[in-house]
TrEMBL record:
Residues 1-21 form the signal peptide. PANTHER family: MINICONDUCTANCE MECHANOSENSITIVE CHANNEL MSCM, POTASSIUM CHANNEL RELATED. Residues 122-183 form the DUF3772 domain. The keyword Signal applies. Keywords: Cell membrane, Membrane, Signal, Transmembrane, Transmembrane helix. Belongs to the MscS (TC 1.A.23) family. It is found in: Cell membrane. One of its GO terms (molecular function) is mechanosensitive monoatomic ion channel activity. InterPro entries: DUF3772, LSM_dom_sf, MscS-like_channel, MscS_beta-dom_sf, MscS_channel_2nd, MscS_channel_C_sf, MscS_channel_TM-2. This is Mechanosensitive ion channel family protein. The chain crosses the membrane at residues 197-217, 240-258, 278-298, 319-337, 349-370, 391-417, 423-442, 474-495, 530-551, 572-593, 599-625. GO terms for cellular component: plasma membrane. The keyword Transmembrane helix applies.
Length: 791
């Protein structure tokens, strides 16, 4: 019976195996074959010299082929897994046991199928690797061409060779311009046979889009935002973005409509198509530049201004932004015109020189105006403004250094590098303004939508029982995440308009080769690596400072943590961030984690002996921050000293004493020794007053007077109520022990003094003698019997 069942099972597996394994593999193999053919075509195309556009197309094709190869490999791996499961179900052949023929045949078929799939999977892996190699080759070629372009040296504009070459090529360039114009005019004359109504309509619609529609859309957006947008911050950010969108799209659409109208009417010859496209591109970019700067400055509407810019700065900067927009327009058109007419190399170099000089002069004017404005405002700045002004000063100093470098490069004949640097500064300014507006808008929307008082926040707190602080925290975290994404996108776009695919590292990395340095323990030490490590460390510490500012000023204030909890989180986050920054810097030097571990193991003996106290205090500080037996603001007593905890670090704790001096206590002392924390359980403070009155005094009257004294002081709480107790009867006196409570421990001393003064006045007026048990002193002569005179 068992053999029949086994045979039936084997037969079913034999029938099912081809349907599962063979059928899906056929299309995957076909896709892989097509991918391999595509990669061979890309490889052949790279054998010759290709331009930038062709390189982009080949790179896209290689990436697509790589993705197909990965998908094929993943599909084949899934089928191999299924076959392995079937083979595992059959099990290995038992030694000394004759298998059934059908099971043996099935194992053979499955093994062959697995071998075939495994071979195809390896082909897919090789295809993916080949595609990645082609992508890397294209990237290296693009970087090499870009570096060759910006590092090319021409004749200095201050030398006679520059002007001699320009004058020599001038007649030929004039002929090219004349031919370009005459051919275009002739084509227009031959193509136009009627009234160019398409061009007229394009001009009319272009004017409508450029002037009245743009003004109307801007006013409409502002009106809608005033009436319907929630919160002033959201209205300001949305208005700025709307101004950018309207200010960019309306001129861009106007240029497109006018250009298309000229094409349809035959007034734009085929040879002038490039210039028409350049006009559209130049209009869109210059309009974007003007719109972004206008939305940032808001010269005519200071109440809608997002940035902390005063009116005078906005008024002085706005004309310069218009000049920058016009210069961008001219730059794009001039480059397109040189390409359209086939200008000589000397003419192109002269055009680049002119554009570079104009950019450098405009940037220098920006910096001079901004420097004068900052100097005029410096005497009115507060501490926060001084810190921000210091950061701006560093940025301006770096820009001045870049301008000097670009100017020197221009004089030496590195025209392309000078133009690249000047345009990079201008583009960085435009990109920074756009990034500022976008991050402000993202922050305003996220923190306004996800707050406990918003509609969404109320719905979450009521429907899902989410705490209000959690909603606030989510809004801040969402804002931080989106702003980080925007920063990454902006960094990626920084050099992309100039053809640099490798970023700033590709621009400056190959301009000069530093010394190779020495290699110690597998780590290369050279000036280049040291500078790189210092730069990475500075960037890491800068990011740490920015992160700590966001954590302490934005995130922690909206949590449910008290001041001490925020301090603990802030300290731990700061040390972790600094550690990550140092690890990042070491990684940039080529020092991996294994080298760090080796160094720590070598220092372990020294830590165990020479640094034992420091290590003990460090660990104790971590325990204090984690367990929080002592928090910032607590009133503690360490030995004979009592004061308020002002700061807890990983090494020591600072306690401010009553005389305003600071007691610095190592953390190990607070962990291993007894410490009195008067405010750990609660803030309430207790007043204790002890005194005695003669035995014949009315105790009830005394108790009432004490209660009245407590009640007369506003610092003494009604709940818990004051208590008056008789502590005992000693030496003919009644001993009273009285207690009252105040709001905090720091009010105990003053309240106790006030109550005692009130009691003294009341007892003196009532003629009640208060004090302690009187002491009797007797002088006894030598030899006197003490028992005889004892009371």
């Amino acid at each position: 019976m068992s053999k029949r069942l086994l045979g039936a099972l084997a037969l079913s597996l034999l029938i099912a195996a081809p349907s599962v394994a063979q059928t899906p593999a056929a299309p995957l193999s076909t896709q892989l074959a097509g991918t391999e053919t595509e990669l061979r075509a890309i490889d052949r195309a790279l054998d010759g010299r290709v331009d930038a556009d062709a390189q982009k197309s080949l790179r896209s094709r290689a990436l697509a082929a790589q993705q197909v190869a990965k998908d094929v490999g993943d599909g084949l791996d899934e089928q191999i897994t299924l076959l392995d499961a079937r083979l595992a179900g059959l099990g290995p052949p038992a030694a000394g046991v004759t298998e059934a023929p059908d099971i043996k045949a099935q194992r053979m078929v499955l093994t062959q199928q697995r071998s075939a799939l495994d071979a195809t999977s390896k082909r897919a892996g090789l295809a993916s690797i080949e595609a990645q190699q082609l992508v890397d080759e294209i990237e290296q070629s693009r970087e090499q061409q870009f570096n060759e372009k910006i590092s090319a040296q021409a004749a200095s504009p201050l030398g006679p060779a520059f002007w001699k070459a320009l004058l020599a090529s001038l007649p030929r360039d004039i002929k090219r311009i004349g031919l370009f114009l005459s051919q275009g005019i002739d084509q227009i004359g031959s193509a136009r046979d009627a009234v160019p109504w398409q061009a007229l309509l394009g001009a009319v619609f272009g004017f409508v889009f450029f002037v009245p529609l743009r003004i109307w859309a801007r006013a409409l957006g502002q009106k809608v935002l005033v009436e319907g947008a929630p919160g002033r911050r959201v209205r300001r950010s949305a208005n700025a973005l709307w101004r950018v969108i309207v200010g960019t799209l309306c001129p861009l659409l106007a240029a497109m409509i006018v250009t298309q109208g000229l094409r349809w009417s035959g007034l734009l010859p085929a040879r002038w198509n490039g210039m028409g496209d350049a006009v559209v591109l130049a209009t869109g970019f210059s309009a974007f530049t003007a719109a972004v700067s206008g939305a940032l400055l808001m010269r005519r509407q200071p109440s809608w201004r997002i940035a902390a810019i005063d009116d005078e700065t906005a008024a002085r900067m706005r004309p310069l932004t218009w000049i920058l927009a016009a210069l961008s327009f001219v730059t794009i058109l001039l480059s397109a015109f040189d390409m359209a007419i086939g200008a000589s190399q000397a003419a192109q170099v002269a055009s680049q020189t002119l554009i570079a000089v104009l950019h450098l002069l405009l940037i220098a004017t920006f910096l001079l105006v901004l420097g004068r404005l900052r100097a005029a405002r410096s005497e009115y700045d507060d501490a926060a403004s001084t810190t921000a002004s210091a950061g701006i000063g560093i940025v301006l100093l770096v820009v001045w250094m870049l301008i000097v470098i670009a100017s020197i490069a221009l004089v030496m004949g590195y025209i392309a590098f000078s133009l690249f640097t000047a345009q990079l500064i201008a583009w960085a300014a435009i990109l920074s303004a756009t990034l500022y507006l976008m991050t402000a808008a993202v922050d305003d929307v996220a923190t306004s939508a996800f707050t406990r008082s918003s509609r969404l926040g109320v719905m979450l707190t009521r429907a899902l029982r989410v705490r209000g602080s959690v909603v606030d925290q989510f809004g801040v975290l969402l804002s931080a995440f989106l702003r980080l994404v925007l920063v990454c996108v902006a960094l990626g776009m920084l050099v992309s308009p100039f053809g640099g695919s490798g970023g700033l590292g590709a621009v400056f990395g190959r301009l000069g080769v530093l010394a190779q340095g020495i290699e110690v323990g597998g780590v290369s030490i050279s000036p280049a690596t040291i500078v790189r490590g210092a730069v990475v460390l500075a960037i890491g510490l800068g990011l740490t400072r920015a992160f700590m500012g966001w954590l302490e000023n934005r995130y922690l204030p909206i949590t449910d943590l008290d001041g001490s909890g925020r301090n603990s989180v802030s300290l731990v986050a700061r040390y972790v961030a600094i550690a990550i920054a140092f690890i990042w810097a070491l990684a940039s030097l080529g020092i991996g984690i294994e080298h760090v571990a080796l160094l720590l193991s070598a220092l372990s003996v020294g830590i165990g002996f020479g640094l034992q106290a420091i290590t003990q205090n460090f660990v104790s500080g971590l325990i204090l921050l984690a367990e929080r037996p002592i928090k910032i603001g607590d009133l503690v007593r360490v030995g004979n000293d009592e004061g308020d905890v002002k700061r807890i670090s990983v090494r020591s704790t600072e306690i401010e004493l009553a005389d305003h001096s600071t007691l610095i206590v190592p953390n190990s002392e607070l962990i291993t020794k007894s410490v009195l924390n008067k405010t750990m359980a609660g803030p309430l403070g207790r007043i204790q007053i002890k005194f005695s009155v003669p035995l014949d005094t009315d105790a009830s009257k005394v108790r009432g007077m004490v209660q009245d004294a407590f009640a007369s002081d506003s610092a003494v709480l009604d709940e818990p109520a004051p208590k008056v107790f008789i502590d005992g009867l000693t030496e003919g006196r009644i001993e009273f022990n009285c207690f009252g409570h105040v709001a905090n421990q720091r009010a105990v001393y003053a309240a106790r003094s006030t109550v005692l003064m009130t009691l003294l006045d009341q007892f003196r007026a009532a003629g009640i003698d208060i004090g302690t048990v009187p002491q009797r002193l007797e002088l006894v002569a030598a030899g006197t019997d003490l028992a005889a005179i004892a009371p």
